[in-house]
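Quick one, T. Sequence first:
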Amino acid sequence: MAIKTNFSLVFIFVSGIIMVMFPVSAKADDELMKETNMTVYFHDYSSGGPESTDLPVVGFPGKLWSFIDFGTLAVADDLMTEGPEPTSAVVGRGQGISIAISLDGVNAYVSFSLVFTNEAYNGSTIQILGNSNQFNAVREYSVVSGTGKFRYARGYVTLETISYNNATSYALLRVNVSARHY
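Structure tokens:
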């Protein structure tokens, strides 16, 4: 029994020396990673009319389906532009879902994609995921993945409500992206 213990101790000791002498550097991967920082704008129409880009689609039977009612799931397909003007150059679409997940309707869980159609990133996507207070002026979410030019993306996104027109249910959102990727 003592031989096994001594062999185990020797093995652990030698393994430790080898790991110190020949470390595996994670820095090599870091050097290959690029960082992209960009700002885009979502143009969100939630009036329920034919021009709507953000609609509640599922909720509890017999209850109003709105963005602040617990359990309501909404889908979005917002125009994504370079600048805040609706006539600004189109970058792509912001597509995804949000679910009011707190009983008071304050917190929403979101899962959406920045789907790029512009020349620089055409066909690439950035996947966003998270939970936050949907009434905060600035909300932060995780960048959990990406495709194309944003393959293996990691980082964060902030969504900031720039303006909201209650009469037309139009919201302008600034989306600040900070992502590391290959």
